[in-house]
Design a protein that fits this description.
heterodimer; B: mainly beta; 6-stranded mixed beta sheet
């Protein structure tokens, strides 16, 4: 069966520090991968999605970037964090090319910027 | 363009009462529709999905949803609310294969 791992679960970082959040998927090949951000009490904002290694689509201009160095690895990064980067970050995967299949989510990372 | 509207950002029901969470979609073609549940500080968990088969879809934890094309709706119901149902619920639509469009969520409170 497929599983998705996301870490760390919580992170407290000072303003201006770098960020690296990692997400890996097991049990499937060539998945679509997604990064979402969820502000407190708000819905989901799609940040990035990827349909293959090195292929990243950005949904909103921001202080963040994403990379997919391996088929089942998706990394969210920032060179300098802003206060507005605080939130709950969720990684998700879905089967490629199958729009009738759901997205499957990791447990999320709670990021607090001080 | 796809969009999803969840009517009511907060819904409160008494324990044992009917749960009804509303979702309407906008699409020129019947889409694929999903309901997710999110407990505090956790990721989203799939409750059920509609993929052009039966219009009444049964999911986990006693939830079900009915696809009504004439009303462009996919409301989520449960006959009898349990305290453990208190959570955030998200409706989502997909059609293009790469992206989902999520509603803004409905927070369900269950009153003992």
């Amino acid at each position: 069966s497929q599983t998705i791992h996301q870490w760390p679960a919580t992170l407290v970082q000072p303003v201006g520090s770098p960020l690296s959040l990692e997400c890996t998927v097991e049990g499937t090949s060539n998945p679509n991968l997604y990064w979402y951000r969820q502000a407190a009490g708000r819905g989901l904002q799609l940040l990035f999605y990827s349909v293959g290694i090195g292929q990243i689509s950005s949904e909103v201009p921001q202080n963040l970037s994403a990379s997919r160095p391996q088929d089942r690895q998706f990394i969210l990064s920032s060179k300098k964090l802003l206060l507005s980067d605080s939130g709950f970050y969720l990684c998700a995967w879905s089967l490629t090319g199958r729009s009738n299949q759901p997205q499957h989510f990791g447990d999320g990372t709670r990021l607090s910027i001080l | 363009a796809q969009s999803v509207t969840q009517l009511g950002s907060h819904v409160s029901v008494s324990e044992g009462a009917l749960v009804l969470l509303r979702c309407n979609y906008s699409s020129s073609v019947p889409p694929y529709l999903f309901w997710y549940v999110q407990y505090p500080n956790q990721g989203l968990q799939l409750l059920l999905k509609y993929t052009s088969a039966a219009t009444l879809v049964k999911g986990i934890n006693g939830f079900e949803a009915e696809f009504k094309k004439s009303e462009t709706s996919f409301h989520l119901t449960k006959p009898s609310a349990h305290m453990s149902d208190a959570a955030e619920y998200f409706c989502a639509v997909s059609r293009t294969g790469n992206q989902f469009y999520f509603g803004t969520g409905t927070s369900l409170t269950v009153i003992p």
